[in-house]
Design a protein that fits this description.
The chain has helices at 2-53, 57-71, 86-131, 150-158, 160-166, 181-184, 190-194, 237-254, 269-300, 314-345, 360-391, 405-436, 451-482, 496-563, 572-638, 643-706, 712-761, and strands at 136-140, 145-148, 201-207, 210-220, 226-235. By secondary structure, the chain is mainly alpha-helical. A 5-stranded antiparallel beta sheet has the order 2-1-5-4-3. Helix 1 packs antiparallel against helix 3, helix 9 (269-300) runs parallel beside helix 10 (314-345) and helix 16 (643-706) runs antiparallel to helix 17. The two termini are 121 Å apart.
């Protein structure tokens, strides 16, 4: 196409130039001819006029006619010159001129026809270039663009934005009549394109995302002179993008990423067909490859397919058939291997597979399995015999069989196993004997053992540590408890039964400590109450003595009143005052008796509370005694290991018994005190009633004293009643004195018992 385009353009240029030149020559020749003919005609006319004048008008007229015909363009005139005169010469000259003009006209006509043909050819060439699929651009020898076909204009217009990014002054609509530097001067290949004036140049130009391949060459005329440059432009943008995507797909395929595809939406025409074809080709490849991968994965996972699905042709069919053969061979190998394995599992070690039914390495595998079973059976049987002896506790001293290779290693391992078991048995017996003799600190050396045997020995040692630690800590707590120290508890972190033991010991110590504290507080309260009772009784005794003295004075006064009844009137006022004092003293006595009753009630209430506390102490002592009995039973079960715990249990039991005895003594004392307090309350109640009666009598005495002057007889009766009441009151006071003395003795006894209980509690520290 490029040589044809160049030749066509050259022919077109030559035809244009020749046509122009011949046209000018024709016009010039015609002008010259007409001018010459005019001159000749004038000359001929002049000659004819002369000839006419000399009587030769006819030949001149003939010549003039011929000249006129020639002047009118008729070059087919018949000119005959017979004479040799001037007219004959003129006619001959006209004949030759007509002949020359005919020749010139024929030549010019031929040239015009040729130029028309050339113009037609050039027109067809231009029309072909305008409609050709390849973009074509032509420049003259000065690199000015003189022609662009429609495809070239469309190409430049489509890529104008990308071209302007590199060639900022380029505009496709105004590219004609400008130099090609607007399109090429910023390209690295611009200097090479300049050589297209003399030789053909091929280069690839890049304008951002647009890629244009240029073929440029010189255009020469028939003489070989360069008259311009023709450019053939090819748009490679889609091709390069496709190449990049194909390269990406190839790289992805190399990396095993067969899911990558070309984005066909970016292309059109042939590149679209190519992209779709590549994608379809990859789909056709990926499907059998994926299926083969799935079946190979199944085979790799031990799942042998029964058949290979899918309809394939060509090489894929061969792959399918090969895969089916492989799965069939593997399935048969697996079946025979499973048969041997199943036989071996059920102990049929004589079972063998038929190696001749397999080929290649599969046959070697079956033969190897058969040979392996043959080599394994004897040492396995011997090993089974020795292991049976070991299982029955009959550890063989030596293994006499002669083996090699791994079986020799099995023999050594079996001997090592026997030695390790003997060492484990020896250390186990050592720990058992030491534990039986109460030596719980004895441990086995785990460094003499290996693997799980070492773990077993370490487990024995850890078990003993787990047993001795809580026992030792419980022993320390019980020893402190035996020494009266209730502040010590078990602090270690234990689990299971040891945690239960820890909680039981700590609760026992805590409950006992709480009990001792409650008993101590109760004893202190009893001591304080006894002191209060003692002080109250002493005060009551003092008041009773004062009342007795008052009664004696009253008796003396009444005796004097009896003797001086005659002076009753004069001493009535004095008697009335004495009666008033007696009334006040009687009321005071009533209040004292009320206080005494309240104190007795408080003593009774305290005695009841102490009785409740003593019941709690008895219950705790009973529970402690029961716990000590259980501990003694467990210690007896433990044998020698529980002797220390049995001693602690005995001490706890003894302490519980002592606590029970002490609480019993306190209960007896409290019961006796309660009885005495109840008796004292009865007496005090009776004294209160008596004092109330005394108050009433004294009030009556006061009333009677006011009437002494009027009723002496009634005075005598009143005095007798007063004497009787005084005697009764004196008896009651004497009884009160006895009751106070007994209450004082009881309070002293209760205080002594409380002090003894406090002394007993001081043995325990919290």
């Amino acid at each position: 196409m490029p040589p044809f385009n160049a030749l066509s353009e050259e022919i077109n240029q030559i035809a244009l130039r020749q046509t122009s030149r011949l046209t000018k020559q024709k016009d010039s020749l015609i002008n010259y001819t007409l001018f010459g003919l005019s001159v000749i005609t004038l000359l001929t006319i002049a000659l004819l006029l002369i000839y006419i004048r000399i009587l030769i008008t006819k030949p001149i007229n003939h010549a003039a006619k011929v000249a006129n015909e020639i002047a009118n363009g008729n070059l087919e005139n018949r000119i005959v010159g017979h004479n040799r005169d001037e007219i004959g010469l003129l006619l001959n000259a006209l004949s030759r001129m007509q002949h020359n003009l005919n020749e010139a006209n024929r030549n010019l006509t031929n040239q015009m026809e040729h130029q028309k043909e050339v113009a037609k050819v050039n027109g067809r060439i231009k029309q072909a270039l305008d409609n050709v699929a390849t973009p074509v651009m032509m420049c003259d020898s000065s690199h000015k663009v003189i022609y662009c076909n429609n495809q070239c204009k469309s190409l430049l217009n489509n890529h104008q934005s990308n071209i302007q990014a590199t060639q900022p002054h380029f505009t496709s609509s105004a590219f004609l009549d400008h130099t090609d530097s607007l399109l090429f001067d910023n390209q690295p290949q611009f200097d090479a394109l300049k050589n297209a004036i003399s030789t053909q140049v091929e280069c690839e130009l890049t304008y951002q995302d647009s890629v244009i391949f240029v073929i440029a060459g010189p255009v020469k005329d028939n003489s070989g002179d360069v008259i311009g440059i023709v450019y053939e432009l090819n748009d490679l943008s889609e091709q390069r993008r496709a190449e990049q995507q194909v390269a990406t797909i190839i790289q992805a395929a190399v990396e095993g990423k067969l899911a990558t595809r070309i984005d066909a939406s970016e292309f059109g025409g042939f590149m679209l067909t190519l992209a779709n074809g590549i994608n379809q080709m990859l789909d056709a490849i990926v499907k059998p490859v994926k299926q083969t991968q799935e079946y190979l994965n199944l085979i790799g996972n031990g799942q042998i397919p029964n058949s290979i699905s899918g309809d394939y042709k060509g090489d894929f069919l061969l792959i399918k058939e090969s895969l089916e053969q492989s799965t069939s061979a593997i399935a048969k190998l697996i079946n025979d291997t499973n048969a041997i394995v199943q036989s071996a599992v059920i102990g049929e070690l004589s079972k063998r597979a038929d190696a001749d039914s397999h080929n290649g390495d599969y046959k070697k595998i079956i033969e190897g399995i058969n040979a392996t079973l043959d080599a394994i059976v004897t040492p396995i049987n011997n090993t089974s015999l020795y292991l049976d002896q070991i299982a029955k506790g009959d550890i063989p001293n030596t293994i006499s069989n002669d083996y090699k290779g791994d079986f020799l290693q099995v023999k050594h391992s079996l001997e090592t196993c026997c030695n390790a078991i003997e060492g484990l048995i020896s250390d186990t017996n050592l720990l058992v004997d030491a534990a039986s003799s109460g030596q719980l600190s004895t441990r086995a050396d785990s460094n003499k053992h290996s693997g799980d045997f070492a773990k077993i020995v370490i487990g024995f040692n850890d078990t003993l540590d787990a047993i001795t630690h809580p026992l030792n800590e419980c022993q320390d707590v019980m020893q402190a408890l035996a020494d009266g120290n209730l502040s010590k508890t078990v602090h270690g972190h234990y689990q299971g039964e040891f945690d239960t033991l820890k909680q039981a010991v700590n609760r026992s110590v805590e409950n006992l400590s709480l009990l001792v504290k409650q008993i101590s507080d109760t004893a202190s309260n009893i001591t304080d109450s006894a002191d209060d009772i003692k002080h109250g009784i002493n005060d009551l005794s003092s008041r009773t003595e004062s009342q007795a003295a008052s009664i004696e004075e009253t008796t003396a006064s009444m005796h004097e009143i009896t003797e001086t009844v005659k002076r009753n009137s004069e001493n009535a006022q004095v008697a009335n005052q004495l009666a008033t004092q007696a009334d006040e003293q009687a009321q005071e006595g009533g209040r004292l008796v009320g206080n005494t009753v309240d104190a007795m009630k408080e003593i009774s209430t305290s005695s009841s509370e102490i009785s409740n506390i003593i019941e709690v102490i008895n219950e705790i002592a009973f529970q402690t005694n029961l716990l000590a009995l259980n501990a003694a039973v467990e210690a007896a079960r433990a044998g020698e290991k529980g002797k220390g715990f049995a001693v602690v249990a005995a001490e706890v039991r003894s302490l519980a018994q002592r606590s029970a005895d002490a609480s019993k003594n306190i209960a007896d004392l409290l019961n006796d005190s309660a009885t005495k307090v109840e008796h004292g309350m009865a007496l005090v109640t009776q004294s209160g009633d008596t004092l109330a009666s005394i108050v009433s009598n004294i009030q009556e005495l006061s009333a009677n004293m006011a009437k002494i002057a009027d009723d002496s007889a009634e005075q005598a009766n009143g005095i007798n009643q007063i004497n009787t009441a005084i005697k009764q009151m004196d008896g009651i006071i004497q009884q009160n004195n006895g009751l106070v003395e007994r209450a004082n003795a009881s309070s002293n006894n209760m205080a002594e018992r409380a002090n003894e209980l406090q002394q007993l509690m001081t043995r325990f520290s919290h």
